[in-house]
């Protein structure tokens, strides 16, 4: 029996500005931290960058038409802050670009879903997110953008995956700006959350009807055994990977065990009075990004900072599961469990619905002579099973209102460059777009709201 999704369930796709736009210096746009980071030798696989990416900046009409052709009803995109503002100065060409994109979407019946920050911070901001002032500047940026687009954009996400833009970016050194200092990563994390909270407050004032939220990434950790050491590692990984951001947003407190774990790094003057009240300003929906679940055990303590700042001794234990090209285990049941966990502990008590704002997979795509990729056996299977998990969570009583596939098209996968392809549409060397089997399949699901067996 095919599974039926509710009629108002949103099916769409997601992208991010730096991963698709190209046009790094048009219209007076200055560098973002990703423009700068991509120039650091060794930072990106093959020394690649988003300079051209999918050239979406010049081809957005074609891309919107493609989404409409597939029958998608929602498009989550991000705005490049340095494309629309140079300091306090509004860059009209950049603003015009997003305004035309929004009009194009609305004209094709696609709901624009705007993410304010998907990692491309203006490089000129001193100290980046380690500087508290950046949170204030972010509010001004959000308001400037709202002034131009607020009459047409109803759904606003403040941040995409602050775990990545703090721990991965300021402690693990893997993302821009490439920092390797745990205290800095905690400053970044807190200032990102503060920026989120202050922006929700500011947008709420000017747009009481808007739908405001944040997108967090969750990679649940399961202890490999019941030994104290393994349980401790799993708790600490879950602490920073999964609870550190969602908990203050919904409860107004950082998790106390995580604060204890990180006490030696926690900057004394970091949290000011009123910060947590701002951070826990009520939101209208939580965006959930899910790709995989990890089994972890206690192992050797690594010398340098790791992505799990509170668990440098975490070692992943692979199960007998298929792996994506990222090396991520395919574990759809983890998504159902995650949605139930969030609903029980955080979003449910607050009466906040959930949307899957990213889910998808990179596989070893082999285009045929016409550029067509038949990804039925891997990507379609991945999407089908994860959508099944979402459906099961809805049956469990979790209010999940939509699913946005990552990603609309193959694009610049950050430090991994172009080799990792997540698109349901392929993009070749000549920037030609060709829908894969998964695009056809997903379009059918979107149009019918039915998940075939
Ligand atoms: C997420 C990012 C997105 C993309 C996917 C694969 O962490 O938000 O930009 O890179 O992973």
Overall residue-averaged pLDDT value: 98
Helix content: 40-55%
Structural class: alpha/beta
Q: Given the C-alpha coordinates, what overall shape results?
A: globular
Can you give a write-up of this model?
It is a single chain. This protein is an alpha/beta fold. It has a single domain (3-219, 238-289, 326-451), classed as Glycosidases (TIM Barrel, Alpha-Beta Barrel). Helices cover 40% and strands 17% of the residues. It has 14 helices and 17 strands. It has helices at 17-20, 33-37, 56-70, 81-84, 92-107, 133-149, 162-171, 182-206, 228-251, 256-261, 275-279, 333-350, 376-396, 437-448; strands spanning 3-4, 10-14, 74-78, 85-86, 89-90, 111-117, 155-160, 211-218, 221-223, 285-290, 294-298, 314-317, 354-358, 400-406, 425-427, 433-435, 450-451. The chain has an eight-stranded parallel β-barrel, surrounded by six helices. A three-stranded mixed β-sheet has the order 9-11-12, with helices on one face. Strand 15 (425-427) and strand 16 form a beta hairpin. Helix 13 (376-396) packs parallel to helix 14 (437-448). The longest helix has 25 residues, at 182-206. Beta-D-fucopyranose is lined by residues 16, 19, 160-161, 164, 217, 289, 358, 406, 413-414, 422.
Topology:
Elements: E1 3-4, E2 10-14, H1 17-20, H2 33-37, H3 56-70, E3 74-78, H4 81-84, E4 85-86, E5 89-90, H5 92-107, E6 111-117, H6 133-149, E7 155-160, H7 162-171, H8 182-206, E8 211-218, E9 221-223, H9 228-251, H10 256-261, H11 275-279, E10 285-290, E11 294-298, E12 314-317, H12 333-350, E13 354-358, H13 376-396, E14 400-406, E15 425-427, E16 433-435, H14 437-448, E17 450-451
Parallel strand pairs: 2-3, 2-14, 3-6, 6-7, 7-8, 8-10, 9-11, 10-13, 13-14
Antiparallel strand pairs: 1-17, 4-5, 11-12, 15-16
The chain binds beta-D-fucopyranose.
Beta-D-fucopyranose is lined by residues 16, 19, 160-161, 164, 217, 289, 358, 406, 413-414, 422.
């Amino acid at each position: 029996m095919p599974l039926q999704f509710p009629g108002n369930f949103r099916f769409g796709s997601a992208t991010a500005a730096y991963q698709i736009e190209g046009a790094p210096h048009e219209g007076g746009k200055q560098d973002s931290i990703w423009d700068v980071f991509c120039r650091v030798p060794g930072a990106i696989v093959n020394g690649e960058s988003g300079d051209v990416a999918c050239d979406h900046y010049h081809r957005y009409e074609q891309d919107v038409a493609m989404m409409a052709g597939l029958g998608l009803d929602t498009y989550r995109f991000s705005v490049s802050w340095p494309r629309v503002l140079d300091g306090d100065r509004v860059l009209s060409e950049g603003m015009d670009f997003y305004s035309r994109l929004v009009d194009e979407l609305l004209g094709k019946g696609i709901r624009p879903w705007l993410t304010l920050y998907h990692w491309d911070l203006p490089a000129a901001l001193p100290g980046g997110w380690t500087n508290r002032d950046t949170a204030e500047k972010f509010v001004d940026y959000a308001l400037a953008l709202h002034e131009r687009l607020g009459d047409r954009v109803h759904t606003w996400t403040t941040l995409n995956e602050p775990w990545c833009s703090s721990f991965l970016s300021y402690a693990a050194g893997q993302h821009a700006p490439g920092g390797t200092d745990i205290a800095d990563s905690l400053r970044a994390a807190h200032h990102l959350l503060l920026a989120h909270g202050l922006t929700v407050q500011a947008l709420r004032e000017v747009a009481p009807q808007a739908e405001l939220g944040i997108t967090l990434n969750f990679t649940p950790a399961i202890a490999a055994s019941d030994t104290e050491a393994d349980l401790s590692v799993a708790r600490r990984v879950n602490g920073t990977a999964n609870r550190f951001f969602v908990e203050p947003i919904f409860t107004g407190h950082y998790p106390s065990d995580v604060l204890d774990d990180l006490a030696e790094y926690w900057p004394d003057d970091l949290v000011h009075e009123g910060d947590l009240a701002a951070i826990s300003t009520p939101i209208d929906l939580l965006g959930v990004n899910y790709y995989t679940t990890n089994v972890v055990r206690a192992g050797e303590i690594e010398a340098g900072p790791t992505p799990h700042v509170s668990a440098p001794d975490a070692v992943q234990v692979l199960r007998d599961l298929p792996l994506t090209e990222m090396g991520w285990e395919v574990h759809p049941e983890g998504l159902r469990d995650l949605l139930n966990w969030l609903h029980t502990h955080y979003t449910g008590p607050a009466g906040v619905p959930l949307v899957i704002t990213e889910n998808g997979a990179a596989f070893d795509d082999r285009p045929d002579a016409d550029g067509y990729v038949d990804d039925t056996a891997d990507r379609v299977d991945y999407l089908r099973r994860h959508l099944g998990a979402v459906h099961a969570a809805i049956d469990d009583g979790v209010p999940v209102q939509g699913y946005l596939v990552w990603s609309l098209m193959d694009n610049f996968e950050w430090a991994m460059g172009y080799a990792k392809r997540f698109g349901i549409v392929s993009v070749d060397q000549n920037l030609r777009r060709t829908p894969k089997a998964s695009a056809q399949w997903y379009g059918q699901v979107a149009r019918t709201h039915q998940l075939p067996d």
